[in-house]
Structures are given as structure tokens and as C-alpha cells.
Design brief:
By secondary structure, the chain is α/β, with parallel strands linked by helices. The chain has a domain of 149 residues: 3-Layer(aba) Sandwich (Rossmann fold), CATH 3.40.50.150. 40% of the residues lie in helices and 25% in strands. The protein contains eight helices and seven strands, in the order αααβαβαβαβαβαββ. The chain has a seven-stranded mixed sheet, sandwiched between helices. Helix 5 links the parallel strand 2 and strand 3. Helix 1 packs parallel to helix 3 and helix 2 runs antiparallel to helix 5.
Length: 217
């Protein structure tokens, strides 16, 4: 994992993030488990260890910089654990619920949480639509994060019932993110966006942040 750690630290350094040896070790353990499980089931199409470091891990760390440190986060469509697990590693005070509809992915996520011995983060096998009817999740989160999960309109519809008043949606998107911001979304949400480039792989990324507009009577 030496090459992974080198790429991870190099990428974090370019972003101005200073990873501790413990944090680097936890992220390397996540990568090691991902490669091991990926040989048996399809968790990621990226198998090159350097690209995995930049496109999965550094990307998640970059996006974490824009998260207003809420107490409770739901990560929708967590897949192989991005951005949730790296976010938790560098922001240990977050309380994160990862949600995925694919049982095998949830098994992997809970295995990673146990392996890394992380507290206050767990994975749930569920459809987000169903959680909207669950009082344990409805309007219980300060933030909802999602990476490459759905277009902004669909994501907003699924995420909104999860948000406590004043909560925000953080959508991690690629180069064409701003094309998904419709007039309808602008009416419903106060929308801001942050852009960044992934170091060494020449990829443009956006975090689009949506906060529901207050409806005044």
C-alpha cells in the first residue's frame, strides 16, 4: 500500500490537507479492503491503485472541506464508502448513516467500519424513499451527501424529507454539474457551488450545496 499512501498524501498536500499518520493508515486500510472485496464483487470500476487514491479518496477528502460541520449526516448511495468513510476519518465528530439499496455493498461498508474501528458510522440496507416514512430518519439529519447518485432534481426530492430545518444537501458532481441546476430547483433551494480540480488526474469536480428556501406565510 506504499504507492497508495504516497498518492493519497501527495493529493491531500496539493489540496492543503494535512493527514496524520493514523488517518493515512485508516484510509489505506479502507483501500486494501476495497481491492480485496472488489476481486469478488463489483464495488468500483477503478482498479489502478493510483487512480483509486485520487478519484475516490482524494475526491472525498476534497469535498469534505466544504461540509459545514453538522452533527448528523446521511450519505445516500454510499457504494464502496465514498464520500462517507474518508469524511468520517478526517472529521471524526460526524455521526454518519450510510444508505445503499444493494445488500452486498452494505455488508462491505459495515465490514470496513468494523475493520477501521470507527464509531458513530453505520450502513443501512434500504431505499431512501422508504426511510422518508421512518420517524427515526424523517427530518433527522443536518446534511445529506451523495456522490454520483442521481441528477440534482431527483436527489433533492429524495434527500429533502431527511433534512432537519436548515439542513443542506451536498451533491458531489463532475464537470457538467451546473447544467443540472434548473429554474425549478432555484425556486425551491438556495443553491451555491464549490469547484475544485482533482490533482494529477486533470478532473473537474463540483460540490453543489442546496438549502431549502423558507416559505413565509
Amino acid at each position: 500500500m506504499k504507492e497508495f499512501c504516497h498518492c493519497l498524501e501527495k493529493g491531500a498536500d496539493v489540496l492543503g490537507l494535512n493527514l496524520s499518520p493514523d488517518q493515512t493508515g485508516l484510509l489505506a486500510a479502507h483501500a486494501r479492503e476495497l481491492m480485496h472485496w472488489n476481486a469478488k464483487m463489483n464495488l468500483t470500476a477503478i482498479t489502478d491503485i493510483r487512480l483509486m487514491a485520487y478519484k475516490h479518496f482524494v475526491d472525498a477528502l476534497a469535498a469534505a472541506r466544504f461540509l459545514e460541520r453538522p452533527a448528523r449526516v446521511m450519505d445516500i448511495g454510499s457504494g464502496a464508502g465514498f464520500p462517507a468513510v474518508p469524511m468520517k476519518v478526517i472529521c471524526p465528530d460526524l455521526d454518519i448513516t450510510m444508505v445503499d439499496a444493494v445488500r452486498k455493498k452494505v455488508s462491505f461498508l459495515n465490514h470496513v467500519v468494523r475493520t477501521l474501528k470507527l464509531d458513530n458510522i453505520s450502513a443501512l440496507h434500504a431505499r431512501v424513499e422508504d426511510l422518508a416514512k421512518d420517524p427515526g430518519h424523517f427530518q433527522m439529519y443536518d446534511a445529506v451527501t451523495a456522490r454520483g447518485f442521481a441528477d440534482l432534481g431527483k436527489l433533492a426530492g429524495l434527500a429533502c424529507p431527511m433534512l432537519a430545518p436548515g439542513g443542506r444537501i451536498y451533491a458531489l458532481k463532475g464537470a457538467h454539474a451546473l447544467e443540472e441546476i434548473t429554474p425549478e430547483l432555484k425556486k425551491q433551494f438556495h443553491i451555491t457551488h464549490k469547484s475544485y480540480s482533482l490533482p494529477f488526474v486533470d478532473a473537474q469536480r463540483f460540490v453543489v450545496i442546496l438549502e431549502a428556501r423558507q416559505i413565509h406565510a
